Amino acid sequence: MPTLFEPTSFGAIKLANRVVMAPVTRARAGKDSVPTPIMAEYYAQRASVGLIISEAVGISRQGLGWAYTAGIWNDAQVEGWKKVTQAVHEKGGKIVCQLWHMGRMAHSSITGEQPVAPSPSTGPGHIHTYEGKVPYEEARALRLDEIPGIIESYVVAARNAMRAGFDGVQIHSANGYLLDEFLRDGTNHRTDAYGGSVENRLRLLREVTEAVIAAIGAEHVGVRLSPNGDAQGTIDSNPEAVFIPAAKMLNELGVAWLELREANPDSHQAFAGATEQPKLSPEIRKVFHGSLVLNQEYTRDTAMEAVSSGKADAISFGRAYIANPDLVRRFQEDLPLQEYDVTTWYGPHGEKGYTDYPFAK
Ligand SMILES: Cc1cc2nc3c(=O)[nH]c(=O)nc-3n(C[C@H](O)[C@H](O)[C@H](O)COP(=O)(O)O)c2cc1C
Question: Alpha helices of 12-134 — where are they, by DSSP H?
């Protein structure tokens, strides 16, 4: 079995090692959702990782309702991202774009419209707007005739991502955002072809994935799922019955890699809290034959064990990458890790807590 530091490939993407940077929203873009120059510096600092999965990137104005996050639906945004991908490639790194529609978690003060979801519902907690943190709003149900437009937004965003120089895309179907809301019966109460049976609840993810594959090729496409636990209040009465068929379906579509964010019984994070729901990754490993990336609360030792025992092909790190731009070297040489500062996780804080974490001497 390989080690964490050996190369691998996810479809067409060649990784120098099996450490992956998990997608981490940092909210350092402009109000026009165009990436800023410090974002290029931030990602370039982290280019020694096997693969960078970008922060979640909005596929449309409707889908992006979080202050200072970036989009990829127009040319100015594509130009901004070109500077990021160029900076990463100059350092020998690889980067894919996480495609994001926030669904019920968006806010009208940013999108200019009521949030949309499979069915009317309201997310728990608060969203970052330009006026500060405010409660989520009630979302309305997407009409059947609006669904082709949603799929088209993913296609346009995927094509734009390739134009911007990304090595591929990751379809964000995790964490209680639009595609995840369709998967789970806690948020999907539809009675049409997109609700009810598991097959129907998988339909939007299937159609989006098929369309993105047709546009840019399966060898550039990954998907993220968060099968167990409570994804920002988006739950399912029987996750196993949904997520194993979802992984099987993604395998049949030829998706190159699948990333699973899995909570643990002692997880403490508000948005992926403790769960007794067992991890589905061992079962998913049996039905998904592309590259499997596992995430959440891995350490150097547990990551090395997961890869060398064949549980995963790679491991992604979120919070550790916020504070350790040279995480691969720190793991290789078993150097201590720096602590992140929660108060600067999300902007607007500029370079503070963003590009100013030092490299190991
Ligand atoms: C500040 C912050 C922002 C995040 N933003 C995203 C995001 O944009 N997309 C996503 O899929 N997950 C996001 N996550 C979740 C991480 O990708 C990851 O699943 C989580 O941090 C657990 O992994 P870790 O234990 O290695 O940190 C975010 C997490 C943090 C802490």
Answer: 37-45, 75-90, 108-111
